Amino acid sequence: MFNPLKVNKFPEKPGVYLMKDIEGKIIYVGKAINLKNRVKSYFRNKESLSPKVRAMVSQIEDIEFIVTESDLEALVLECNLIKFHKPKYNILLRDDKQYPYIKINLDAPYPYLEIVRRIKKDGAKYFGPFVDAGALRETIDAIRKIFPIRYCSKDLSKLPLKERPCLNYHIKKCLAPCKGGLPQGKYMEMVENIILFLEGKTDLLVNILKEKMFKASEALDFETAAEIKEKLISIEKVRQKQHVVTMDLKNKDIIGYFSFENIICLMVLFVREGKLIERRPFIFNDSYQNEPGEVISSFIKQFYDDMKTIPEEIILPENIEDKDVVEEWLCFKKGAKVKIVIAGENSEEDFKLISLALENAKEYVMQKRLWEKKEECNVLEELKQKLSLQKLPFRIEGFDISNTGGTDSVASMVVFEGGLPKKQDYRRFKIKTVEGPNDFESMKEVIYRRFNRAKKGDEKFGEIPDLLLIDGGPGQLKYAKEALKELGFNEKIEVISIAKELELIYKDDKDPIELPKTSEALKLLQRIRDEAHRFAVTFHRNIRAKRNMDSVLDSIPGIGEKRKKALLQSFPSIEEIKNTSIEELARVPGMNKKAAKAVYNYFHSVLH
């Protein structure tokens, strides 16, 4: 237990303090204007502390500190340490790495859109994060419909390329800089318009395009004017989906706060040029009853730490303790003035925006709880009781093996949270160490690999499940448990298997558990098992199909490795290649009329 008298030797300077438990693990990181006074406050009157802080203080074995030159430096250091250590008692924003961003590398000769999950300090422009994958797809589709930016990631440092432009050029969806002759200035002008679009500056973009349309029309270049008009119509369709919520044209983020039971929702509304363009909800588990100001302050620091576009104003529902230093930090990151506005202190319009954010946050939480109560408290509670599990199995991971006579063995991992699939967490594995049709050893390999990566800190495998579901009987279950035991996870994770024939559930090699056929808990396990099977079989078929395609294409005269690769990238199956005309085959990069005829003739003379 930490001796509070040690705090008397702490300096009365700004800095960061790190609280550690008996194992030396950092459990909390905080910043202070005065390190000595701030840390002392944890030990003065324990009865006045919140349940969270009391629980944390009881685990403190040691406290280290780092002195900084200023409050701002302390805030920056605090952000970095929280991000790196992910302490148990800090309020942690769900890691942005699982949210995609749109990246535009402006240093590339002819930039293209990339979807990435990690922001780097590489001079590129990043837009996001996109919490909703559907919104990301919709945004990219809209951009590509309006602007013919290139789809591919080819190296265009040396132009022209030897290969022909792809199909997108022929259907006027790409300007094809790869063929050479396209002025870089013209292409970059389009990229700048895309950036305006992604920044929500559609009014400015529309004015720029209208001016160009009128100039083209005056110059009797009616074809260019018509093309610009089509773009304006498409942009207008996007703008119609955006609602005007304020006459103030400043760019603003509005953060609404709502808590219910143990759930906190922070709803961020993004207002650009007076229009509400997007909303993003962030959910926190508030089992420690944190104060709203503490949650909001922690959220701002983590959310805007990686954001490339910080607005002119951030409107909050209530004041935060370190408002001035957070505002100074935001200005430093943006390189321009950023103002934190507390709703009600400035204008009635800001208060209306916060009310809108609150309403959205409340609706989101209540819908979430309605579903959770219906699904979790019924199906998951039934599953816990019927199988005598130690805790509610909110996150369940299902595993299955697929092969054909022991060849091309693969495994699948599917994830269900709260009874619903979480497809972004699905994973696929090629079996590496097992030869022949040995499902037992294959299952052991994949379970070992999955949790070994978690043990090594791989963020893709960071979340630990409450329950593992193995497709199979006691044999597969035994080998899965062996893998967990070797890694030290055997006491942390419960494992069951489900055998297909009689739908019996095994927790060990003793008597199986038989649930009624009408049981919702059994139906959930069957859904997870069937999804794992589907995912494994699909992966296995794709591998086999690719191998078969390789084999077939190897038989066609004039089709070498480069052309084979190009065909495999352009067409998903042999059937598609077979049904493609000579003209379309010739447009595939690396192909010509002669090679296209060879492919066409092969399928229409040999196979039919």
UniProtKB/TrEMBL annotation:
Domain GIY-YIG span(s) in chain numbering: 12-91
A single GO BP: SOS response
Taxonomic classification: Bacteria, Bacillati, Bacillota, Clostridia, Thermosediminibacterales
Keyword DNA damage part of the UniProt annotation: yes
Protein family: Belongs to the UvrC family.
Function: The UvrABC repair system catalyzes the recognition and processing of DNA lesions. UvrC both incises the 5' and 3' sides of the lesion. The N-terminal half is responsible for the 3' incision and the C-terminal half is responsible for the 5' incision.
Molecular-function GO terms, alphabetical: DNA binding; excinuclease ABC activity
A Pfam cross-reference name: HHH_5
Protein name (database record): UvrABC system protein C
Keyword DNA damage: yes
Originating species: Thermovenabulum gondwanense
Domain UVR: from-to ranges: 203-238
Any single Gene Ontology cellular-component annotation: cytoplasm
Coiled coil: none
Database matches in CDD domains: GIY-YIG_UvrC_Cho
Quaternary structure, from the entry: Interacts with UvrB in an incision complex.
InterPro entries the UniProt entry points to: GIY-YIG_endonuc, GIY-YIG_endonuc_sf, GIY-YIG_UvrC_Cho, Hlx-hairpin-Hlx_DNA-bd_motif, RuvA_2-like, UVR_dom, UVR_dom_sf, UvrABC_protein_C
SMART domains: GIYc, HhH1
Start and end residues of each UvrC family homology region profile domain: 254-484
Subcellular compartments: Cytoplasm
